[in-house]
Design a protein that fits this description.
Elements: H1 3-26, E1 28-29, H2 32-38, H3 46-55, H4 57-64, E2 67-68, E3 71-75, H5 81-90, E4 95-99, H6 102-105, H7 116-127, E5 132-135, E6 149-155, H8 158-164, H9 166-179, E7 180-191, H10 199-202, H11 207-216, E8 220-225, E9 250-256
Parallel strand pairs: 3-4, 3-6, 4-5, 6-7
Antiparallel strand pairs: 1-2, 7-9, 8-9
Protein name: Methyltransferase
Domain Methyltransferase type: 129-186
Signal peptide: 1-27
Length: 259
């Protein structure tokens, strides 16, 4: 073998090794201890920190398989509760696309006198969340490339799409299927509902409905978690009922786009 051919072969192997190294540096398991410390500092809203024991964001994201360095699409980021945690979780090498429709930006932030859009802005500024990119557009107008996202989060919103019209849920899920990379993760969190009740009014859905919606859209259900189950919940009450004090029982699903 000639010297030049040998050098070309070595260069090729070196390029592959560098690509593999780069990929491994971009996606690393969560450092859950560091993440807990990062989201408990004075640069995060105390109201959000008070919600953590019930919402268990670190445990949920660890279960869902989020890693440092990932690109994330957060569907309906609202006032940014999860945006802050996602930003700190993926770190400076990651990216979070915080999506809200223009209409959603005008909604009142829960238990606050500002809009969700203003609340999100304040969290990004106060936390110096430089890796967050706001996407103030409808989900089907984000402009994200196909197969460009590692991880998508749909938290407490699938029921609204599904209960309005199951076809609406399919449109949303198929858009996520489009932007996720092969093998990409879709995390779903939602409020437990019971068959036979008016779950549209209650803002809930059954686990079976969520599974059906996901598999119909082409996703594979990998696992579910009872991290957010709450036996004191009353599924006959609306999630906004003051008697529940946000204490609903919720399911967590890890789904994946096939390779």
């Amino acid at each position: 073998m000639s010297l030049s051919r040998c050098l070309r072969g070595l260069n090729g192997l070196l390029s592959i090794a560098l690509l593999m190294m780069s990929g491994s540096l971009q996606a690393q398991p969560l450092d859950t201890s560091a993440l807990r410390q990062s989201i408990n500092g004075p640069d995060r809203e105390i109201a959000d920190r008070m919600r953590d024991p019930a919402r268990k964001p670190v445990e949920v994201l660890e279960f869902l398989g989020l890693q440092q360095g990932m690109s994330v699409l957060e569907v309906y980021a609202a006032g940014g509760y999860f945006t802050f945690v996602l930003s700190r979780a993926v770190g400076p090498d990651g990216r979070v696309y915080a999506q809200n429709s223009p209409r959603a930006l005008r909604y009142d932030e829960d238990r606050s006198d500002i809009t969700q859009g203003d609340a999100l802005s304040q969290k990004i500024e106060r936390g110096n969340l430089a890796n967050v990119i706001r996407v103030d557009k409808a989900l089907d107008e984000t402009g994200l490339d196909s197969e460009s996202i590692d991880f998508a989060l749909v938290s407490q919103i699938l029921h609204d799409y599904y209960n309005r019209r199951p076809a609406s849920a399919q449109q949303m899920l198929r858009e996520l299927f489009r932007v996720l990379k092969p093998g990409g993760i879709l995390g779903v969190i939602d409020h437990h509902g019971l068959d036979g009740l008016d779950n549209q009014r209650l803002h809930r859905m059954t686990l079976a409905q969520a599974h059906d919606a996901l598999t119909t859209a082409g996703f594979v259900i990998e696992a579910g978690s009872d991290l957010l189950e709450n036996r004191s919940d009353n599924p006959r009450r609306s999630i906004f009922d003051p008697m529940l004090n946000r204490g609903t029982s919720q399911f967590v699903i890890r789904a994946r786009k096939p390779e």
